[in-house]
Each structure stands twice: as structure tokens, then as C-alpha cells.
Write a structure and sequence with these properties.
By secondary structure, this protein is mostly helical. 42% of the residues lie in helices and 1% in strands. The chain is globular and about 55 Å long. The two termini are 16 Å apart.
């Protein structure tokens, strides 16, 4: 679900920033996300946006997660937060990671992507009142479904488990049955099933999901992709409500000792994936980082994702240890990573039935709110409705302010790229 991006996109972003991907392991050797660069004096972060760091690579993603998480715990967004998100939408319904000039029309060079678009759909569905904009975004996603039933990060790109899963969440959020959305006779669940490793006790990666096949068509277990695919296979989105999960019948308390589901249904694949995640947790309760040079370090974000996935699968017993570990060790990571991290932790606590306002002594909801607009909206009467887009329909709502200045130095740009890559979690 969370802070993640494909290996191909990693290379693209690094090239865009003028740096090599070889910088990432050194920068992330401690297994935690580096602090995102603060806005330079020549930049101004748009009013209504959560987080004060450069939104170039994650603006829509972090905004969407913040809105979804706040709604999940009954909180209203800060002033202008929904306006900001609406202003990022292109006329064709898609969203890019961030558009500095939200008043300009999107052209063929606009870097729209499925992850930002699907995340925005889930956020708009959560806050309500913007059905037309959400449906327009869903229409773009449907138009760009691959023949295998899935989605890649970019339109027409090879399908991957994470992108397919976040789109499933978007479809579910607007009340559509993901299994009924087919291309060439294949559904998103078919695409996920093709990325599932066989479940056989004692074999490496048993029951896990791969992010994508390798060049030879082989599948390698990926915990980040598995967490996303478990949730996606169950037709869930970012928000998993405690007490309403258990579609797989649970993966077993130990995970590793759980019996494999022999069927081919999405629920069976989710069961096996959840068992893999439960078995992959260390004795202390966390998932290890897959980043080169940091393999023995905890991966806080993926551990939070695993809690959501295990809760969705009904393995509430298996969520206890990773949740307890997160309560003790989330602080530095969340403070560095910002609103998306706080939102992710809120969603993990919510899924497991734990109070996010007292998460190891931390009020996650308050911390998230502190990263956004100070004024809390008492009601949504001032939020633009479906008919308030400007004449050409490009903004999808009230036009927002622009991020000023283009003089971001190479070092800051490289740091922004690395922060984004960590935020989108590199796949194997």
C-alpha cells in the first residue's frame, strides 16, 4: 500500500534527478527512510498540503493517505486539504504524483500514474461529495487496464502486485466489484494470482507474492508486494476495519506452520500470502529490510503494512507482536517520513483494533494533523462540489497555489528522489 515504487521507476526517478541508484543503499544503510528535504527559501508549499517537504514525487500519494487515515478515525481534514487534491486532477481524470502548476492543462508530458490516481480515488471516496471527480479517475484507470487484468505503475506498463492492488482498492471504494473489471477476459484477481508463488511447506517464499516476474518469468517473494496483494486479493483498500476481516479464515497464529490453501480463489491466495508474512516476521515482530546493505535492519513501513494485511486476512493473533514492536519503534521513522508514515501507522492500528490516539504513548492522529493545515474544517460546506471545476475541467475543483521556484540544487533533488524511492519502497 504504502510508500513504494517499482525498480523500473526507481531507475527513472534517479535518472531524472541526475543521480545513480547506487546512492540509495548508502543513504538507507540504517534501514530507515532519510528525512525528506525541506522546501528551499525560493519554494512555497501549497496551502492545504500535508507535509512541508518537497511534494514533487509524493504530493498526491501522501495527501491521499492523510485524508483516508483521518476519515477512518472520524476526523475531518484541515482547511484546503481536499481542495488541494482536487486541484491536482487532470481533465482525463488521472493524477500525477504532483503538478506544480495546477492551473495549467495536463499535456502528453504530464507524468500521470496509476498509484497516485487510485490513491486519490480512495481519498475522494472517503471524504465524500466528489463522485464525479472520483468516477472520472476510475474511468481513466479502467481505460488503462492491461490484458492480464492488472495495472503497472504507468499506463501500459507491466502489471505489478502493488499497482494492481491499489487500483482494486479504488474500485472497491466507489462501490464497484473489482472481480467484474476485466480486460481480455482477465480480472485484477487473475493478475495477482499470476504473481503468487506456490504454497508448499518448507519451500522458500511459500505462499508469497512477487512484485513482478523477473526477465526469465521467475517469481521472487517480496514482503511489500505480498502485504499489498493480500489486501488486494480480498478486495480491500487502504482502510481495513477491525472486526470486519477474516475472509480467509485466518492464516494461523504462527503463520509458518499454517496449512496451505489448495484452492485458486483470491481468498486462498490471500490466506497463503498472510501465512508467508506471519512466518517472515522476526522473533521481535518486525519485517527485515530488503534494501541492499540493510538486510538485517527493520523495515518499519512494511511491518505496518503486514499488520493491515494480517488483519484483513483475519489473523488477529499474528498482528499482536508486530503491532507491539511498532508501538515501541515507530517514532524516529515516522518523524522523518512525515504524513504518509503517520497515516500508515493509523491505518495499521485501526485495522488491528488499537487506539491510534494512544499508540505506545503517541497520539498518531494529532501528529498527522500537525503536518497539515492548522485550521480544521468544521463542515464541508466550503469544499468544492462536483460541479465547481473550472471551465475546461482540468483542475477538478478549486485551483490551488503553485509551488514557486525551480532552482532546486542537485543535492536536494537527489535527496528528494531518494526520499520518494524510500517512501514508495523499492522492490527486489
Amino acid at each position: 500500500m504504502n510508500v513504494r515504487r517499482s525498480a523500473a521507476v526507481v531507475a527513472v526517478l534517479a535518472a531524472t534527478a541526475g543521480v545513480g541508484t547506487g546512492l540509495a543503499p548508502a543513504a538507507l544503510a540504517d534501514g530507515t527512510a532519510p528525512a525528506a528535504p525541506s522546501a528551499s527559501p525560493s519554494q512555497a508549499i501549497s496551502t492545504g498540503l500535508y507535509g512541508s517537504t518537497d511534494p514533487k514525487y509524493d504530493g498526491v500519494w501522501r495527501q491521499s493517505l492523510a485524508l483516508v487515515a483521518l476519515d477512518a478515525v472520524g476526523e475531518k481534514p484541515g482547511a484546503g486539504a481536499v481542495d488541494w487534491l482536487l486541484g491536482q486532477q487532470c481533465a482525463n481524470g488521472a493524477f500525477a504524483a504532483y503538478r506544480a502548476d495546477a492551473t495549467a492543462k495536463c499535456d502528453a508530458k504530464a507524468a500521470v500514474d496509476t498509484n497516485s490516481t487510485a490513491a486519490a480515488v480512495q481519498a475522494l471516496a472517503a471524504v465524500g461529495g466528489h463522485d464525479a471527480q472520483a468516477e472520472r479517475a476510475v474511468g481513466w484507470l479502467k481505460d488503462n487496464q492491461n490484458d492480464d487484468g492488472g495495472w503497472g505503475f504507468t499506463a501500459g506498463g507491466p502489471s505489478d502486485a502493488n499497482s494492481t492492488s491499489v487500483v482494486i482498492g479504488a474500485l472497491a471504494a466507489v462501490g464497484e466489484a473489482p472481480g467484474g473489471q476485466k480486460k481480455a477476459g482477465r480480472s485484477p484477481f487473475d493478475a495477482l494470482r499470476a504473481l503468487a508463488l506456490p504454497c508448499a511447506a518448507g519451500t522458500e517464499g511459500s505462499g508469497a507474492f512477487a512484485y513482478q516476474p523477473d526477465k526469465k518469468g521467475g517469481l521472487a517473494a517480496n514482503a511489500d508486494a505480498t502485504a499489498a496483494a493480500v489486501v488486494g486479493s480480498l478486495g480491500e483498500g487502504f482502510v481495513v476495519d477491525a472486526g470486519e476481516s477474516g475472509k480467509t479464515g485466518g492464516s494461523g497464529a504462527s503463520g509458518a506452520a499454517a496449512e496451505c490453501a489448495d484452492g485458486t480463489s483470491p481468498e486462498d491466495a490471500a490466506h497463503n500470502g498472510a501465512a508467508y508474512l506471519a512466518g517472515a516476521l522476526t522473533s521481535d515482530g518486525y519485517l527485515k529490510s530488503a534494501l541492499a546493505g540493510a538486510e538485517d535492519q527493520p523495515d518499519v513501513g512494511n511491518t505496518a503494512d503486514a499488520v493491515v494485511a494480517l488483519a484483513a486476512a483475519g489473523d488477529t493473533e499474528a498482528t499482536a507482536k508486530p503491532l507491539a514492536w511498532l508501538e515501541k519503534h515507530h517514532g524516529a521513522w515516522a518523524a522523518k517520513s512525515g504524513p504518509a508514515a503517520y497515516a500508515q501507522l493509523i491505518l495499521a492500528a485501526h485495522a488491528a483494533g488499537t487506539d491510534p490516539r494512544d499508540f505506545g504513548g503517541t497520539d498518531l492522529v494529532a501528529r498527522l494533523a500537525e503536518t497539515g493545515p492548522a485550521q480544521v474544517v468544521a463542515d464541508r460546506s466550503g469544499v468544492p462540489g462536483d460541479g465547481t471545476a473550472d471551465g475546461d475541467g482540468d483542475d477538478g475543483g478549486i485551483a490551488t497555489g503553485v509551488v514557486l521556484g525551480a532552482g532546486l540544487g542537485l543535492a536536494a533533488l537527489a535527496a528528494a528522489a531518494l526520499t520518494h524511492l524510500t517512501r514508495k519502497r523499492r522492490r527486489a
